[in-house]
Amino acid sequence: MLVKYAIDLLCLIHINMYFIDYNFSHRIHHLSFGDAAYGRIHPLDGDEHITPNRLHIYQYFIKVVPTKVNTRFSNVDTYQFAVTERNRALDHNTGSHGTPGIFLKYDFSPIKVYVEQKYKPLWKFLIRLCGIVGGIFACTGILNSLFGAILDIICCRFKLGNTNRVRNQTLQLPIAV
């Protein structure tokens, strides 16, 4: 089999077979740019395309962004990338023209992304925790006062719980003769 690899100034990689019978089904096990960094996702890892057609075009448009990652454990200059995929079967009888193959078109971004992991000190966490606990106590105290006032208004207005037994009794005063 004859394989043609073409790399030009427009950052284009083209894999094409000159044999008519070739099937362009493929699997991308791993594709990355730069050094490995913890937590980085490679969107094309494990990507698999199977086609029964012998004339098929696969295009991958890759946008590569330089990235600097600073964490507590590593300091890495690497690259991230985003991918847009397009594939279609070629049939010259229906007007779908093109060159069959696998095309990787990539473009480098002029903007660099900085990823930095920062930790706040323990004393700031404790101060925030005390503020949250104090706020909870203050809110529950306000709610307790509010519900107590509402309960007093309801009980006093409708005189719930107060029984006057004096009304039913007659007043007897001692009489001196």
Automatic annotation (TrEMBL):
Top-rank lineage group of the source organism: Eukaryota
Domain Endoplasmic reticulum vesicle transporter C-terminal: residue ranges: 21-143
Any GO CC annotation of this UniProt entry: membrane
Transmembrane intervals: 125-151
InterPro entries: Erv, Erv_C
Listed Pfam families: COPIIcoated_ERV
Keywords assigned: Membrane, Transmembrane, Transmembrane helix
GO BP annotation list: endoplasmic reticulum to Golgi vesicle-mediated transport; retrograde vesicle-mediated transport, Golgi to endoplasmic reticulum
Protein name: ERGIC2
Species for this entry: Bugula neritina (Brown bryozoan)
